[in-house]
Amino acid sequence: MSPSRSSSEASGPPARSYLDTPGTGLRSWLLTLDHKRIGVMFLVAVTIAFFLGGVFALLIRLELLTPGPTVMDAMTYNRLFTLHGVVMIFLFMIPAIPSGFGNFLLPIMVGAKDVAFPRLNLLSFYLYVAGALVALYGMIHGGADTGWTFYTPYSTTTVTKVVPILLGAFILGFSSILTGLNFIVTTHTLRAKGITWGKLPLFVWALYATSIIQVLATPVLGMTLLLVAVEHAFGWGIFDPARGGDPVLFQHFFWFYSHPAVYIMILPAMGVVSEVVQAFARKNVFGYKAVAYSSLGIAFVGFFTWGHHLFTSGQSAFDAGIFGVLSMLVGIFTAIKIFNWTATLYKGSIAFTTPFAYFVGFLFFLFFGGMTGIALATVSLDIHWHDTYFVVAHFHFIMVGATVMGFLGAFHYWFPKITGRMLPDRWGLVAATLVILGFNFTFIPQFLLGNDGMPRRYFSYPERFWALNVASTAGASVLAFGLVMVLVYVVVALKWGPLAGPNPWGSRGYEWMTTSPPPLENFEGTPVFDREPHDYQDAADEASPAMAPEPKHAS
Amino acid sequence: MQASTAHLAHHFESLEKQTHAARLGMWLFLATEVLLFTALFAAYGVYRFLYAPTFSEASRSLATWIGAVNTVVLVTSSFTVAMGLHQAVHGRGRRTAVLFGISVLPALVFLGFKYVEYGHHFHAGDLPGKYYTGAIPGVGASIFYTLYFLITGLHGLHVLIGMIVLAVVGALAWKGRFDATYHTPVELAGLYWHLVDLIWIFVFPLIYLI
Amino acid sequence: MATTNESTSHVEEERLQHSHAGRYFWVWAALIALTALTYWLSRFHFPGGWAVVVALTIASGKSALVALFFMHLWDQRGANRLVFITSLVFVALLIGLTVADSATRFPLANPPEALGGWPRAGAPGRPPEARRATPGSSYRRNAFQAFCIRYVWSAVNSSMQTSST
Q1: Which one, of A239, A222, A380, lies nearest residue A308 by Cα?
Q2: CB C6 to CB A195 under 8 A?
């Protein structure tokens, strides 16, 4: 049986897709209400932010090449790590997968024509742009030097440009809230006939759980940042001990959002992984309900753990005990997912494509990042590791190691769906290898550094830490090179990539039931969803990627 | 009943579904507003615990009767808004507009009282943070007034926004934009206003009474 | 051509169309009565934290009336109610755990002049309830709190001894 792709490849890209309907001019993009175009605009924006944050990271690593000053002074260094955090977290990690891929795919995956509130969706994009511009204004005027965590009382008394950065983050928070709101309502009210809650794609479950966190946690961050800005500007003293305030209260409020925020960053990546592992093992996931409900579990239990950021801040032992135990509980849900994804591979038919390579990296990094998280949740151990590079390595394992792997995996898996073209798989595997190896070389030395006692956010360090810092910077260079390689071939493929056809991976996810790229209203005619997503055991006609013919190059 | 088909968006299968989605979206937005105020209430809770006697003393120095009158005023305007929605459900747009107009007036009264109160505080030196020059010794008093101005200020801002929303929706109702099958903006405006009332129901005892 | 929708299997019970004017009036009357009640009760100065409990109970009752009847949660489907109740859970969570932290802390970690804190040097007059900052001395009322403070104090002491080598 010949693969069905060849006939669709010969017919070329679909005649009318969302890319040329209703028009192709700038106005039609900037004023679009089409969730797919909004998703693409978000993807472009977050990619720019990612590279900006990456430049900041490279400058940090450059400075840390030598124990003393290398290329900058201490104040500049402080500003750089602050901006690295702010840009990476608020401008990249929080919106990247939900507002980028989620916007594009969620309505398609539930069989809808758009999200519930398309105009709010466009507003959410412009709020992102507005927040980014306000933060950029602050950056250009020197930026803040408080760290992305803006701890009081320093953030309320520093002379640097804290207020624009705070206001930028405040505005970005509203973008996040609107996206979450839209996704929840879409999932509740716009599911097509046949897609019950028990047949929702796992990416949708992950986005739903993420949206719950976005809606409930972000307002508290907004209020907290506003309080810091007010205190910085007007001296109202709510966190100032001299006026009776409690600086640790700021930390409570800040982490009430920021800990669930890390779950906003990781849950969508887990959703991506669920889709990728099913598609490239050609097997329905092991334990659908467990994976789906564990997303909700992470979302809810993640709210109960924020105090583990305050173990050494003077928080009471009573609260510390509660938070320590709950922080360990939340790891159970991640463990469930890891078991289930691994079990999905058993007796599957694995195609080791680039998305699958990123899944492998993801699994490894999530496992070790997660385990070090459990270790950090132990109060007595955290007293040794708090504010050292151990913590830095832990969260980079999750943020870069897991979330960025998820983002890159999503990018490679869904690039054909979004653009109608294929990315080169060989270059993809080379880049993925560089990224994974470079990542290891960057952050494993940092675990060792932290355990040896090197504090984080320090501009200079004792000579005994020199070698590991050099290793870490070398790794960062390799990582950067791999990521630049990805950027290069993506740009090349946008113009000259081979045409993909509707389903180049032979995936049984719902989004592959329509053309690549999809038409304006997502499906031609009314789609019929009479099966579960990724039901490979019943599929005899979908081509396996291993049987793919040689890609033809367009024109 | 042509208003209904004109309002149905292309991606919803029915107006009923769309209305339900709008309502759910509004409730989610109200949840974000609740969480926004929660941060301030949490600060209030912490500092009230830490400075209990000073907070009580500062609270006693407020004009409790104004707070009580404001509560009655807001509750009543909530009632008239609910009646306005009731009229909209039965397709009587003009009565809805009248009732919404009536609801805006108590809100103006509310803001007027707050203006009077704020003026009194400025003169007495009861100001937030480093500007506190009032009579009560101890830092707890300046914290109290910081929280007082933050909470009532944020709430007052929401009252103002709510008034504008009610006025706009009331004007649309007067022009006959709604009928018995489509009156979603009336309902959503009402929900927002009731939330503003609900928040004040908690602000009043916490700030004025204990 | 609208896509048929899975969610229509749950038919919306819209009892909004029924006459509710009478109900609104009674809810309004109850709210006024409860406002008067809470105002009247505030004059009694209940001991300890009971004033807060009384006031918050009445406020919860009033807000339940507003949410259930003015905001129609009484006749609407589960999703809206779930959203509202979930937000309340998180309100309780944030307020509860932050106040619990301040309540169970090592007293010197609280701001000056606060409950159990160090009195502020040079402050004009002493606040009426300033406490000495020796652990365990003034916390007879709260045995659990005293236990925590003694436990933490001894832990801090012993760790300072071992780290000073």
Answers
A1: A380
A2: yes
Contacts of B31 in chain C (CB under 8 A): 83-84, 86-87
Identify all chain C residues contacting B15, using CB atoms and an 8 Å cutoff: none
pLDDT at C135: 46
Rounded to the nearest angstrom, the minimum Cα separation between A315 and chain C is: 6
What are the average pLDDT values for consecutive 10-residue runs of chain A, which has 555 residues?
A: 40 71 89 95 97 96 94 93 95 96 96 95 97 94 92 90 93 96 96 93 97 96 94 89 90 96 96 96 94 96 95 91 93 95 94 96 94 94 95 94 95 96 95 96 96 94 95 96 97 94 92 92 87 80 47 44
Mean pLDDT of the region B39-48:
94
Q: From the CA of A490, how many Å to the nearest CA of chain C?
A: 35
Residues C75, C126 share a domain: no
Do A19 and A518 form a contact (C-beta atoms < 8 A)? no
Q: Do C136 and C148 belong together in one domain?
A: yes
Name the A residues in 504-523 with CB < 8 Å from any B CB.
Answer: 521
Of 3.30.160.20, 1.20.210.10, 3.60.15.10, 1.10.3720.10, which CATH number belongs to A2-15+35-546?
1.20.210.10
CA distance A66 to chain C (A): 30
- Looking at residue C116, its pLDDT comes to 62
Hey, are the CB atoms on C5 and A189 less than 8 Å from each other?
yes
**Min Cα separation B170/chain C (Å):** 18
CB B77 within 8 A of CB B197: yes
Inter-chain contact B146–A236, Cβ cutoff 8 Å? Answer: yes
Give the residue from A477, A324, A455, A489 showing the smallest Cα distance to A386: A455
Residue extents of the structural domains in chain B: 37-209
Which residues of chain C neighbour B45 with C-beta distances below 8 Å? 95, 98-99
A153 chain-C contacts, CB cut-off 8 A: none
Give yes or no for a contact between A398 and A365, defined as CB atoms under 8 angstroms apart. yes
Query: Who has greater pLDDT, A293 or B138?
Result: A293
Are A252 and C101 within 8 A, CB to CB? yes
| Yes or no, beta carbons of C87 and B204 under 8 Å apart | no
B29 CB neighbours in chain A (<8 A) are 181
Domain boundary among C89, C104, C119: C104
Query: Are residues C98 and C135 part of one domain?
Result: no
Higher pLDDT, C138 or C94: C94
ipTM value, please give it: 0.93
**Non-local CB neighbours of A243 within 8 Å, separated by 6+ positions:** A237, B129, B130, B139, B142, B143
B41–C7 C-beta distance less than 8 A: no
- Calculate how close chain B gets to C157, using CA atoms only, in Å: 25
Residue C93: Cβ within 10 Å count: 17
Residues C121 and C62 in one domain: no
What does the buried/exposed string (b/e) look like for A479-498 if buried means 16 or more CB atoms within 10 Å of the residue's CB? bbebbebbeebbeebeeebb
> What's this model's pTM, rounded to 2 decimal places?
0.90
Enumerate residues 6+ apart whose C-beta is below 8 A from B182. B3, B4, B7, B15, B19
What mean pLDDT do residues B126-152 have? 88
CA C115/CA C141 separation, integer angstroms = 13
Band (C44; pLDDT cuts 50, 70, 90): confident
Q: Which CATH architecture has domain B37-209?
A: Up-down Bundle (1.20)
For B62, the enclosing helix (H) or strand (E) is none
Domain segments of chain A: what residues?
2-15+35-546
Nearest chain A residue to C155 by CA: give it: A317
Q: Do B79 and C4 touch (CB under 8 A)?
A: no
Contact B108/A at CB under 8 A = no
Nearest residue, CB atoms, B25 vs list A113, A185, A227: A185
Q: Answer whether A238 sits within 8 Å of B35, measured CB to CB.
A: no
